[in-house]
Amino acid sequence: MKHQYKVGFFKQLRATVWRSWRASLREPFMTKIRLFTSVFIGLISGLVFLKVGKNTTDESNDVATNVNGALFFTVMTQSFSALSGSLYIFPAEIPVFLKEHKLAMYRPDVYFISKTLSEFPWYVIGPVIYSTIFYFMVGLRTDAAAFFIFVGIVQLLNQAGLSFGYFISSISPTVQVATSVGPPLIMPFVLFGGFFLKDMSIPDYFIWLKWLSFVKYGAECVQINQWANYGQVGHCNGTNICFDGKKVLESNGYSKENFNRNIGLLFALIFGFRILALFFVMLRARLAK
CA–CA separation, 29 vs 36, rounded Å? Predict the structure, then answer.
């Protein structure tokens, strides 16, 4: 039977967003925990990789390895933190949503949009805090443009991990199922992210996973941002092997020409996973009639 909603789409959206936002504000402890976590992880990560980007005494290969390790660590932590924070959302609230949907209070797409909008500020503020602390403690490129591009890439990575988490959350019947299957499902994206396994070494039957890996696109983008047009890396005394930023990118199979493509694919995956999540939320509402 077709639902006759009491109010229109935008009134439903305004009411549900406001309700979700107020529910978040009623838990100031969780807000503090989120902020503390961003600061804590940023500080710990920064201390582990402290000033590796400003090292001018070690050989080129050692400096490049340390900086690339720091960059990939950021890619992994931001992807996993966003994923883990979103896995519980829909399984925990679906029973209430289905009950209110049957009462024709609001549409499934309104519910989904309101949840993503109410969560959005927290998943913007946290990565900005982390990125700022991490960037300057590690000692990455000093120009302002590189810093803001880095923050933007981390934001996109965070949103991609969040969107993938929404997708897993939307198809999981319980929080326990979501939190059990979510981390293992993101591992192939990490394995084919370009750090552990080069593209040419990926088996043909797994090559399709490379194109779904937001970890890969983010990892390449942060390295391009760091090394493109970068001069001499580390110390060069004439007896060791010396190279510049271009050689670092080439040794990892990366190219600065891929930057815009990768950014576009990150946006595509963000919206693609969210569309899939919305589809399954709507499907569950239909099947529950």
Answer: 10
Q: Helix axis angle, 259-287 relative to 144-171, nearest 10°?
A: 20
Q: What burial class does residue 209 get, using C-beta atoms within 10 Å of its C-beta: 0-12 exposed, 13-18 middle, 19+ buried?
A: middle
At 105, phi and psi to the nearest 5? -80, -40
Token pair for 52: 């590796």
DSSP line for 249-285: HHHTT--GGGHHHHHHHHHHHHHHHHHHHHHHHHHHH
Tell me the C-alpha distance between 79 and 270, whole Å: 12
Q: What is the largest CA-CA distance in the chain?
A: 79
- What is the identity of the amino acid at 135? Y
Instruction: Check residues 25 and 12 and name the one with the higher pLDDT.
Output: 12
Distance between CA atoms of 259 and 30, rounded to whole angstroms?
Answer: 36
* pTM reported for the whole predicted model: 0.90
Nearest Cα neighbor of 72 from 189, 242, 230 is: 189
Conformational region of residue 23, where left means phi above 0, alpha means psi within -120 to 50, and beta covers everything else? alpha
Q: Is the pLDDT of residue 199 over 80?
A: no
